[in-house]
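Please produce the structure of this protein holding 2-acetamido-2-deoxy-beta-D-glucopyranose.
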Amino acid sequence: MEVLLPLVLACSLLLTSAAPARDITSICASQISDFPQLNSSGLHLTLHHPQSPCSPAPLPTDLPFSTVLTHDDARVAHLAARLATTSNTPPRRPTSLRKKKASTAVDDSLATVPLSPGTSIGVGNYVTQLGLGTPATSYAMVVDTGSSLTWLQCSPCVVSCHRQAGPLYDPRASSTYAAVPCSASQCDELQDATLNPSACSVSNVCVYQASYGDSSFSVGYLSKDTVSFGSGRFPNFYYGCGQDNEGLFGRSAGLIGLARNKLSLLYQLAPSLGYSFSYCLPTSTSTGYLSIGSYNPGQYSYTPMVSSSLDGTLYFVSLSGMSVAGRPLAVSPSEYSSLPTIIDSGTVITRLPTSVYSALSKAVAAAMGGAKRAPAYSILDTCFEGQASQLHVPAVTMAFAGGAALKLATRNVLIDVDDSTTCLAFAPTDSTAIIGNTQQQTFSVVYDVGQSRIGFAAGGCS
Ligand SMILES: *[C@@H]1O[C@H](CO)[C@@H](O)[C@H](O)[C@H]1NC(C)=O
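Below is the modeled complex.
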């Protein structure tokens, strides 16, 4: 990376804007004091809601919920587009690091360090901490079951880094860092992991391109270093050292990929920990967990992990029915499986086939007692005056093939969009159905790749 040195000074001047010190309340301190832990049952990390004040990289508290929904729709469109394309198309903005590297003058674009808050993968994603390098430094990372490659913003940020909480990862400060050459097998695996071809730099380093939508992406050097979680250290972890990172990821440093691919964090740690992970996605006022390794199998109800030729890396399930206040929706059972269905940690609002959504909307509205209807809000069209906690909300159950069920609590059914309006937290789609994170909140969800099943258990976190 020596050819990049002329840019280092300019970049460091522009990018050392550390996040302002944040008051960690004693509540947050007590919630995170026991983590991370590596014990005989695996690796246990704390997971934070993207807007939790305890998150190491919380989204701005004044972020309008309509903005969250706009990003959510972009994420869904991106996932749907992935499943719709049979041949992989390169990202809309393939960034040539090679070109930037050859230039010795400080590029003008570096003087206007971004940040166009473009389409984002980060807005709905939960946050945890990952240690990298020797000595290890901790980074706030979003966790994503919808992508595979782990990457983080990486000094000297040849093209662009956004402002992140805490210092940037600096490969030169790590004694265990190595750039991965183009000839490595991991470089070939990038195509499957990112759905974009890899490239090769003039100095023969493998270049990855991870894209998440129209304007959200990370491009940089495929690298390896020791990843650590508390006392657990795992050498030779492959990840992306991001030199051009665009899209609003809050203040997080990067992304942890948990999808089904050899380069994902799950697969890289699995030889030591086992091929499964579980999580509990908390609300914005509590904390949850992400565990990799063994889990308590008795507490879950299971549904088979469905394989799809559309995209081998995503987690497909088969929705088999829904009921409201104990009554099945008035749709033909075949409607539930009329679209491919994935379960996703980063999509906020569950998307259902239009016919199922319409029946759900009608049934919920009819069972809401005297709640007054409110106008539609963004993509949510079944809204009521008041806050979810003050209303009489019917029980909603989502059933899956094999007998697994999510018996949704009020907080999984309605979402407060402002101080006086709450909406059904589902939306219709005609492309890809997605089990989103509002519906998963507070359940333990296990992704057992080894046994090809997904399990749900109530009461995983508060
Ligand atoms: C491992 O640590 C987790 C998280 O603290 C804890 O819940 C679990 O019971 C521990 N397991 C064992 C076997 O010690």
